[in-house]
């Protein structure tokens, strides 16, 4: 509750008061006295009584004769003044207080019956436990039923591999039962301070701690625990959920809980027929400094209560894959990651990373990616969730690889081939297609792409809009540009036509050119089979391998080769620096003969001259082996 200063409290109360008779001032003063003796936030009441007395003395207050209206007005006043919605004033001429029967005083048979009806245990598939508790019994009752509960509930639960604790219907219970449950789901090593409960009428503070030992087997803190809550979950059950959530021991699934109170009492105001309802005790979690009271426990996975069980089950399936994913990623990093000196730290991280609250594969991927990048400081080492990617780019080819007609369409739409003035060939493709039937792709490309270009004088390959794709077709296209005699061992040797390195090959790049597109530009440059012109590329080039983690949509991309750039430095995937840097939109104009432009290659001097009388002239070192 936010603290209110006395003057504000005063104003709020006075706005609503009416005291022409002597009854109402007395009532208000009595009410203030009750609050002073019972309200669990006494610090918010400082100065209240004096303020009220002063207001009464000055006598400038309105008249309200209807008692129900008076009660409503007082409620608004006191709630507003103390900022606590639980405080209410009611007019109830026929109110008879019910004295709640304390459970421990019931005969044992009745206790057993009651507990049987409020606890249900099932063992689901995969040894997932399902425990529904509708009433958190207090320590006294638990002590009476000790061995019965242990044999029938807790020892059986302890044998399960993971647990769904259903508190959606838990609407009754006692706080004194909370420490046992928290202890059951913790390790014994060190005791945990769970809660501090202040009781105003007795002016006492009680601390709840986990128990040093419990009879019977504990569940411990390693196995997955999911707690289900609903908007009806209230009281001690909220304390259980709140504590286990903030101890990072349980994932809360469902709805925000009711936001109950430790203890609320309805107190008669003097001898009147007015009553004031007052929270007389409060709970503060030493973990958060706050409480589940009033605001409730917010779930980590929000679903409506009736879908919570299904959600919890699917969550447990996701969580059960986590150890395997960690193992696979560790193995892949150990085996492939090029920066071997960083591997030990990465493996260490994977062992110790806190994945307690992971609730989806995507979530897991994001977390691991963040952690790995932080430790490796390598933007190329990536863990990602692939579901979104699967829908784009690569997938479209899988189903059509045997259908020549569709394949032809694909090649036709992917590769744009033109012959520009001065018999300059122009080839643009915006992605590198993926295909398992590479031979067919090769054949089609020979017919549809290379055949029209084979007699051109120069070839422009436009990668300005190329954002990557699959590197399988990279080798295929690159091999066409190389002299058959010079094919690099890195690539599969194709028995395909070749443009060769005798004619000029110009690769256009832009800021958008990415991933495999960049790799292509880089290889053209470093294998000396062409000249790169345009803007520095986006810098997502990775000489990396992508591994999908089996049975998941998670993939890890591991750089397994380090590039040395032209200056002999490690290349961490910064953009490819073109041989000639020009704005991407100018790059093609320079080459395709608009204006008065020329490309001349002076083999003797190893200089390539690209120029225009409208724009600047670019003079490049040209290294044709
Ligand atoms: C409550 O108890 C504390 C000491 O535990 C004491 O200092 C304080 O005055 C008491 N408050 C009231 C209102 O009795």
Automatic annotation (TrEMBL):
Pfam family, one: Peptidase_S41
Presence of the UniProt keyword Signal in the record: yes
InterPro entries linked to this entry: ClpP/crotonase-like_dom_sf, Tail-specific_protease
GO molecular function term, any single one: retinol binding
Keywords recorded for this protein, A-Z: Signal
Top-level taxon of the source organism: Eukaryota
CDD domains named in the record: Peptidase_S41_IRBP (cd07563)
Domain Tail specific protease: start-end pairs: 107-304, 403-583
GO process terms (BP): proteolysis
UniProt KW Cell membrane keyword: no
Residues spanning the signal sequence: 1-22
Protein name, entry field: Interphotoreceptor retinoid-binding protein like
Gene transcribed to yield this protein: LOC115571847
């Amino acid at each position: 509750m936010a603290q209110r200063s006395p003057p504000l409290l005063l104003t709020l109360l006075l706005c609503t008061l009416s005291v022409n008779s002597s009854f109402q001032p007395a009532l208000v003063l009595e009410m203030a006295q009750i609050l002073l003796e019972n309200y669990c936030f006494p610090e918010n009441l400082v100065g209240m009584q004096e303020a009220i007395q002063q207001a009464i003395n000055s006598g400038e207050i309105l008249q309200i004769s209807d008692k129900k209206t008076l009660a409503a007005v007082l409620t608004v006043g006191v709630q507003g003044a103390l900022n606590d919605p639980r405080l209410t004033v009611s007019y109830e001429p026929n109110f008879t207080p019910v004295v709640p029967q304390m459970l421990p005083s019931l005969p044992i048979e009745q206790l057993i019956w009651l507990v049987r009806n409020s606890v249900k245990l099932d063992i689901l598939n995969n040894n997932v436990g399902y425990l529904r508790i509708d009433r958190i019994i207090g320590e006294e009752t638990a002590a009476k039923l000790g061995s019965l509960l242990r044999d029938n509930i807790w020892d059986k639960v302890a044998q399960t591999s993971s647990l769904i604790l259903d508190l959606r219907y838990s609407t009754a219970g006692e706080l004194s039962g909370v420490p046992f449950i928290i202890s059951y789901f913790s390790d014994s090593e060190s005791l945990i301070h769970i809660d501090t409960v202040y009781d105003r009428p007795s002016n006492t503070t009680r601390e709840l701690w986990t128990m040093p030992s419990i009879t019977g087997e504990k569940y411990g803190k390693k196995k997955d625990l999911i707690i289900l809550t609903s908007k009806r979950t209230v009281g001690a059950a909220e304390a259980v959920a709140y504590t286990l959530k903030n101890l990072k021991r349980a994932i809360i699934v469902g709805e925000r809980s009711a936001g109950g109170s430790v203890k609320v009492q309805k107190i008669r105001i003097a001898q009147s027929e007015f009553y004031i309802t007052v929270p007389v005790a409060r709970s503060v979690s030493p973990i958060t400094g706050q409480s589940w009271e009033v605001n409730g426990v917010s779930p980590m996975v929000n679903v409506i209560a009736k879908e919570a069980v299904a959600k919890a089950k699917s969550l447990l399936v996701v969580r059960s894959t986590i150890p395997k994913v960690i193992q696979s990623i560790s193995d892949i990093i150990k085996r492939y990651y090029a920066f071997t000196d960083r591997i030990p730290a990465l493996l260490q991280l994977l062992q110790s990373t806190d994945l307690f609250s992971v609730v989806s594969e995507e979530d897991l991927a994001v977390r691991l990616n963040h952690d790995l990048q932080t430790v490796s400081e390598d933007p190329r080492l990536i863990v990602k969730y692939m579901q979104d990617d699967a829908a784009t780019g690569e997938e479209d080819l899988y189903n059509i690889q045997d259908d020549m007609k569709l394949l032809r369409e694909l090649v036709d739409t992917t590769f744009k081939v033109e012959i520009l003035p001065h018999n300059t060939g122009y080839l643009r493709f915006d992605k590198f297609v993926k295909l398992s039937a590479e031979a067919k792709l090769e054949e089609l490309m020979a017919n549809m792409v290379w055949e029209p270009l084979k007699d051109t004088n120069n070839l422009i390959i436009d990668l300005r809009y190329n954002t990557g794709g699959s590197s399988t077709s990279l080798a295929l296209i690159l091999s066409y540009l190389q002299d058959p005699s010079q094919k690099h061992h890195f690539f599969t040797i194709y028995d395909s036509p070749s443009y060769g390195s005798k004619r000029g090959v110009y690769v256009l790049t832009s800021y958008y050119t990415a991933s495999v597109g960049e790799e292509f530009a880089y290889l053209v440059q470093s294998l000396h089979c062409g000249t790169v012109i345009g803007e520095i590329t986006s810098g997502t080039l990775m000489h990396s391998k992508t591994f999908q983690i089996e049975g998941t949509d998670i993939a890890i991309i591991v750089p397994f080769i380090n590039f040395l750039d032209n200056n002999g430095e490690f290349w961490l995937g910064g953009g490819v620096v073109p041989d000639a840097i020009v704005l991407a939109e100018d790059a093609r104009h320079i080459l395709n003969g608009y204006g008065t432009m020329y490309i001349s290659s002076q083999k003797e001097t190893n200089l390539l001259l690209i120029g225009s009388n409208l724009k600047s002239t670019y003079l490049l070192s040209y290294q044709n082996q």
